[in-house]
Please model this.
Amino acid sequence: MTVLNKSSSQVGINRNAAIFLRFARGLTWVILVVISLPVGATNQQIISAKAKAFKDKHGLTLYWHKDQEKPKSTFRMGYLLAEPRDYELLMTYIERLDVEFSKYPKVFHQRVQLRTIAIVKYLNVSTRGGVFKQSRSAYPDALNHTLYYDFKAGRFDPDYQTNVMHHEYFHLIDYQLNGFQFYWRDPQWMGFNNPNFTYGNGGTWNRGGDYTKRLNYPLKGFISSYSTTGVEEDKACIFAALMIESSHRIVNTWAKTDSILKQKIQYIKQFVGDKEGGLEIN
Ligand SMILES: [Zn+2]
Model:
């Protein structure tokens, strides 16, 4: 009897110990998760601090949170702002933007009147009275001094995102410095091309062609298939290529035996570098 009693109480102790162990293990996990949260997760304060540092450094406001004043837009824009679960990705995007925008002198942004960069997701633009709605990875709104970037578009391809940053910025620069008249038709630029070459119908109608911005040198004077869609796209493609070291090198190599491309590169360098507050591309 005594032996039996002892053994049943031992079973009870073992069961209690097992329950306690399981509880302790669970508690440890909870503590670990709570401790690691503020360290690992990017929160609103961290992004706000980064945005403030960005503003101090570049003189540009980052619009990313609903508490901020929404930028005015020329066209009907559709987009969503980042939710807490996007913050990690948003932060990565802002860090990349910081690196790329460090290539421009602060005064250059003032010269071309860029004031705000809206970093959003699911960006789309409606034109023609809302009949025509189009997804965009970025959009330059020169009239409202704002650049829109979709931080989720092309997120698995950092090179693509980096290219888009400069490409879209160029459209705004082009508009500010050249005016509406020369934006679509620039006689000097068109004069560089072979006389029998004609551009396509512009970037707006070739959205599926975002990936044709890749450098493939389809013909003399053109660095990508997308370049052939319009004067404004041709310029933006060359500009973006020149702003990134790896593509700059490739384009320079082609230009050695391509006088059309050489003239276009010179034009772009002069165009953005001219006058006070210019951007020098070496
Ligand atoms: Zn473009």
Summary: Residues 12-41 form one domain.
